[in-house]
Backbone:
């Protein structure tokens, strides 16, 4: 990804094989190095900004993985991607780490949550929406929509949005709610 003043943009990622046991994590560092070298050939301006793991929170193993990436990037940003789709969403959380402890003694790491904003191209959104539909399909399979079905769906969403705007305007005119320019 890239860093610009006070924001970080994550644009790509690749998975790195690892094995976890109860008290240790083995990351395939050679694989990670090779993948990054290949990635730099395609996107030479992008840097390693951090790492990601599936799950809804930072774990004890996160500290060990973070230690490795601290050698690869200054102040790496860990992301957690909750693939369980709780509440019908794939939650992504980002953190910044801070060393803590008594000087000269064993140090610990504290992870503080960051604000995450999603940005995507329309074509990416279409793909994600299609994948999300499979979550609610009984057999986890869903077909692609025809052009006519897509136009019909878009028309229905526009009609719903217009109905919401019309209802708001009627509520303002009748005095049920006060006008709000931010709406």
Residues:
């Amino acid at each position: 990804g890239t860093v610009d003043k006070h924001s970080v943009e994550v644009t790509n990622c690749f998975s790195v094989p690892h094995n976890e046991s109860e008290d240790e994590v083995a990351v395939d560092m050679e694989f990670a190095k090779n993948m990054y070298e290949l990635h730099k050939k395609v996107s030479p301006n992008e840097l390693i900004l951090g790492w990601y793991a599936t799950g809804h929170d930072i774990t004890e193993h996160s500290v060990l993985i973070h230690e490795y990436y601290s050698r690869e990037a200054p102040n790496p940003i860990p992301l957690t991607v909750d693939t369980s789709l709780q509440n019908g969403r794939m939650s992504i959380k980002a953190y910044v780490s801070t060393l803590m402890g008594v000087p000269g003694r064993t140090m610990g790491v504290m992870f503080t949550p960051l604000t995450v904003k999603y940005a995507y191209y329309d074509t990416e959104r279409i793909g994600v929406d299609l994948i999300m539909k499979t979550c609610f399909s009984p057999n986890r399979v869903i077909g692609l929509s025809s052009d006519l079905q897509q136009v019909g769906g878009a028309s229905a969403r526009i009609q719903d949005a217009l109905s919401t705007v019309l209802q708001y305007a009627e509520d303002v005119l009748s005095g049920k709610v006060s006008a709000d320019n931010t709406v």
